[in-house]
Design brief:
With 88 residues, this protein is an all-alpha fold. Helices cover 42% and strands 0% of the residues. The protein has helices spanning 7-28, 46-60. It is flat and about 70 Å long. It starts with 6 loop residues before the first helix and ends in a 28-residue tail after the last helix.
Length: 88
């Protein structure tokens, strides 16, 4: 009643608003994209990128670098502070 709504209502109303905007654009002859269309040139996958880098390195004669570890190595620090217990 005060013009406020929740995100749930916004999500439920979204398809209706998109259809209304499509109809307005078509009636006015405006070219539009919704964002659900497939791209002409899809983005490369990580495998394709790695293969391309490998080929370039082979072409220039550079040695391949070892892969980076998946998780960073975190050194464990001894507990510090007022409430920490000493090592026994």
């Amino acid at each position: 009643m005060q013009g406020l709504h929740t995100i749930d209502v916004g999500i439920l109303v979204l398809p209706v608003l998109i259809e209304i905007m499509i109809n307005i654009a078509e009636n006015e002859g405006v070219k539009y994209t919704i964002g659900t269309e497939e791209q002409d040139d899809p983005l490369p996958t990580e495998g394709n990128i790695a293969l391309a880098i490998k080929k370039v390195r082979e072409k220039i004669g550079e040695e391949p670098k070892p892969p980076m570890p998946a998780e960073p190595v975190v050194e464990e620090q001894p507990p510090m502070g007022l409430m920490s217990r000493g090592v026994q």
